[in-house]
Amino acid sequence: MTRISLSRIWLGAVAATLLGSIAGCGEDIGLPPPTFENVVDTSTFYALSGTAVSDPSAMDVVRGVLVRLDLGDSFDFAFELDATAGGLLLTASMLGNRTEAGIVPQSVPFDSVLTAPEEGYVIDSVVPIKVGDVFVVRSRFTQDGCQVAAQLPRYGKFEVLAIDSQARTVDFKQLLNGNCGYRDLEPGLPVN
Q1: Residue 7 has what pLDDT?
Q2: H or E element: which one contains 23?
């Protein structure tokens, strides 16, 4: 009698586990509905060297703001200007923050980039830029502002509008998706 009871309990536990596994297949991680609309904007970055400390040289894609590196390490990439190499993007990892923030150069126009890629991000190398270049950025993975337990990145796309070697600045057109885990890079509320 004890053998039968234990067998039935064991079979019941196995069946419940299998049913739970099957029910979980295909479910996403439960992203909350998006709350931030994607909007195209412009910004001006100052080179890391040869400019005032008070001038922002980096972008915090998570918060969607330009930042000064002397005020903290919450950023995803920064801008530098080199006399021989020209404009350069440096990921946070290149500047000492070990993160998964990365950059993917694009070979299509800004308006044609509709979704951030899942892979291929440059994390630990310098990315040279020139006027007209388009690139996608993935932020560091964080739970900040997310309504889920997972650490998720934010995404954005940028186009280099101008590089001024005298003022040591770069002007970007940008679209940042402030919604945790959403990769859509079109104006409006994202779907994916």
Answers
A1: 43
A2: helix 2-24
Average pLDDT, the chain: 86
What secondary structure letter does DSSP report for 21? H
Please choose, from the candidates 180, 113, 110, the residue with its C-alpha nearest in 3D space to the C-alpha of residue 151. Answer: 180
Buried b (16+ CB within 10 A) or exposed e, 51-89: beeebbbbbbbbbbebbeeeeeebbbbbbbbeeeeebbb
pLDDT (mean) for 60-66: 95
Q: Give just the sign of the alpha carbon dihedral 110, 169, 57, 93.
A: positive
Structure tokens at 185: 């890079």
Q: Other C-beta atoms within 10 Å of 120: how many? A: 11
pLDDT for residue 15: 38
Q: In whole angstroms, what is the distance from residue 178 CA to residue 141 CA?
A: 13
Read off the amino acid at residue 22: I
How far is the C-alpha of 88 from the C-alpha of 78, rounded, in Å? 8
167 by Cβ neighbours in 10 Å (0-12 / 13-18 / 19+) ranks as middle
* Cα 118 from chain centroid (whole Å): 10
pTM: 0.82
